[in-house]
């Protein structure tokens, strides 16, 4: 409850406050030796399943319809972003002396909460992944309003804070009937986990519910069971607290040493995504500011808030960001496996 309340208080001043604030609280408690326990495994798995439902709900018919006219450019932009992330991860792994899985997940541009929550399932260091992911979220959230305000000089007075309702009491699922929505949420989450285990998905607790939710929402079979409001806030709080409690003094010093290199890689990816935005703007003849917000690497909530505040094309930006988020979360395990196989092949060829 304390971490939840702290996130509420920090919401106006910190991007992704309900992730970062509990993480910092857990970190302080763990490093100070005040708490030696972690979040229970069962609660962590339930949180992953609910996050999977949330991620899957982003892939809805409205997003697909909005992006249908620019499928090829969007696929190319998403593919280029993945390659940029892999390139930055390779540099970070080599120069920062961290394992490839942690570097790859840390540099994945999108779905920070979902990526961090599954880090341990993919043999990555969740503390390093969280540090890299939230460093990018903070940088994007801090710079996007400034850059867009500069690009949209005609709307210079339109910038303002967008009220965030994530932490408000009220609906906890998107269904008008909350009990029905919660029952559907539990059913889809459990069915997704079981299906994910049956087909041996990597990180079945996240990817199983995510794929099942996407299939149900795209087909129009079911809807109204995605976490929202205070429930979504609780999920983010658990993820942040779980990561924070896993820090030690040595791991804190380790991520501190990564800061200059990680910041450089993050800035490089952001600049490259800016170049992709210019190409998308030129090819599709859309305003550069809209293209920039659609392609900026991560921080979807902050990006959408900026889009609303600057009267940008929210539907376009939401659809592109949502599709990329879904693709990134889905492909992260595969990318890690492929990069690991490539590294193993490289070592064998040397011998």
From TrEMBL:
One cellular component term (GO) for this entry is: membrane
Which keywords fit this entry according to its UniProt record?
Membrane, Transmembrane, Transmembrane helix
Give the transmembrane region(s). 12-35, 71-95, 131-152, 172-194, 206-225, 259-280, 325-344
GO BP term, example: regulation of gene expression
- PANTHER family associated with the record: REGULATOR ABRB-RELATED (PTHR38457:SF1)
What is the protein name for this chain?
A: AbrB family transcriptional regulator
Q: Tell me what organism the protein belongs to.
A: Sphaerisporangium album
